[in-house]
From TrEMBL:
This is ABC transporter permease. It is found in: Cell membrane; Membrane. The lineage of its organism: Bacteria, Bacillati, Actinomycetota, Actinomycetes, Micrococcales. The keyword Ribonucleoprotein does not apply. It is a multi-pass membrane protein.
Length: 213
């Protein structure tokens, strides 16, 4: 194992960077999509229930099956990996964003409107900041979930540590096959821990002290 890591450490580091970059970029895109969608639907009970239902049903779709379906229209490469990771990352964030915005006391919203704030300004400066801790909790859940999905997405020859896993599995019994799988799996776990710690720091930096208390 040590010899394999020593001989392949540059490739491992590059794949780890690709994996983390893919997940972070898809999380940012998913957060924007989820917040925009939640802002459009949270005032309607019917639309909120529909959004929550779609989120729940979307999570039941096997990631490997979705990847297989995307190969036909988009081929192999980065694009299907980005689509799959972003899709699954959006679902928990969307649910938490809807819950967070609906949890804002009506009296707070009415007070903001009463002092002359527009609906958009109320959403941007009052509701979203108050709902941010709940939204961020959804982001942390998504981060852990899609870190593994990004490895599965390597089936499309996408970037990341999943390449080590599939490479090892395809030649089990051969030289360094087991080591390749272990490096991929352990690398994904370590990246998930690192990203979660970074999100904890982000939470401390972006959540006002009054809300934390």
């Amino acid at each position: 194992m040590w010899d394999f890591v020593r001989d392949s450490y540059q490739q491992i580091l590059f794949a780890s960077w690709q994996h983390l970059s893919l997940v972070v970029q898809c999380l940012v895109l998913a957060t924007v999509l989820a917040v925009v969608l939640s802002a459009l639907v949270y005032r309607s009970k019917t639309a909120s229930a529909l959004a929550n239902g779609v989120s729940a049903m979307g999570l039941t779709i096997p990631s490997f099956a979705l990847i297989g379906l995307l190969i036909a229209p988009f081929g192999f490469g980065v694009l299907p990996a980005v689509i799959v990771v972003t899709f699954f990352a959006t679902l928990p964030i969307l649910r938490n964003a809807v819950v967070g915005l609906n949890s804002i006391p009506a009296s707070v919203v009415e007070s903001a409107r009463g002092i002359g704030m527009s609906r958009f300004r109320t959403l941007a400066t009052v509701e979203l900041p108050m709902a941010w801790p709940i939204i961020l909790a959804g982001i942390r859940v998504s981060a852990q979930m899609v870190m593994g999905i990004a490895a599965v997405a390597a089936y499309t020859l996408g970037p990341g540590l999943g390449g080590f896993i599939f490479s090892g599995l395809s030649r089990l019994g051969g030289a360094n096959a087991f080591e390749s799988v272990v490096v991929g799996v352990v690398g994904v776990i370590l990246l998930a821990i690192i990203l979660d710690l970074l999100l904890v720091v982000l939470s401390r930096l972006t959540t006002s002290r009054g809300i934390r208390v």
